[in-house]
Amino acid sequence: MKLIIGLGNPGRKYENTRHNVGFKTAYALADKYKIRLNTKTFSSLIGKGRIFSEDVIIALPQTYMNNSGEAVRMIFLRKKMEPKDILVICDDVNLELGIIRIRPAGSSGGHKGLASIIDHLDSGDFARLRIGIGKETGSPALSGYVLSPFKKNEAKTLEGVIGSAVECCEAWIKEGAERAANRFNLKNRKD
Questions:
Q1: pLDDT of residue 171
Q2: Which domain holds residue 109?
């Protein structure tokens, strides 16, 4: 069984913010495979289904970004999973909009949602798919930027990157994080 976690903040107020690109990608993946994210359990919205021949749980923690680890830990313990069977999808201000990066393990890189998950699982040995949201150099507060909506002129790029991120999730399920990284991290490299 595989667990795919989309990170974001619950509620209409945050729905279209940069910080919720993990939610958007998880919804897109669920829609593609007709997985309904309608079960409220483990402080998350959860859907179960199959992608290729793999049983998959897609979860959207409803604990707010900085406390995502609480929800992930509940699912992790209840389903008796290994960290290597988890993929976390999140935003990354250090990547340009349109760029994605997948890694099989690592640190939080300063992302508070990832830090919470690492803390609650006592491990960073899970895959993470980072989706670039860009960084506004003139922004006085990073929190204000990540909680701002995407601009109209970014809509086409956002749609394309979410499509690539869904394909990357599929590659992770089918081939693992390292092969997905070989395919998608190179594909998205800006020269």
A1: 98
A2: 2-187
143 — pLDDT class (breaks 50, 70, 90): confident
Structure-token match 């994080």, residue found: 177
CATH number of the domain encompassing residue 132: 3.40.50.1470
- Buried b / exposed e across 124-133, counting CB within 10 Å, b at 16+? bebbbbbbbb
Give the 3-state secondary structure of residue 89: strand
How remote is the C-alpha of 120 from its chain's centroid? 17
Q: What pLDDT digit, counting tens, does each position of 95-134 carry?
A: 999 999 999 999 999 999 999 999 999 999 999 999 999 8
Find the catalytic residue in 2, 18, 19, 130: 19
* Sign of the four-CA dihedral 139, 144, 147, 149: negative
Is 120 designated active site?
no
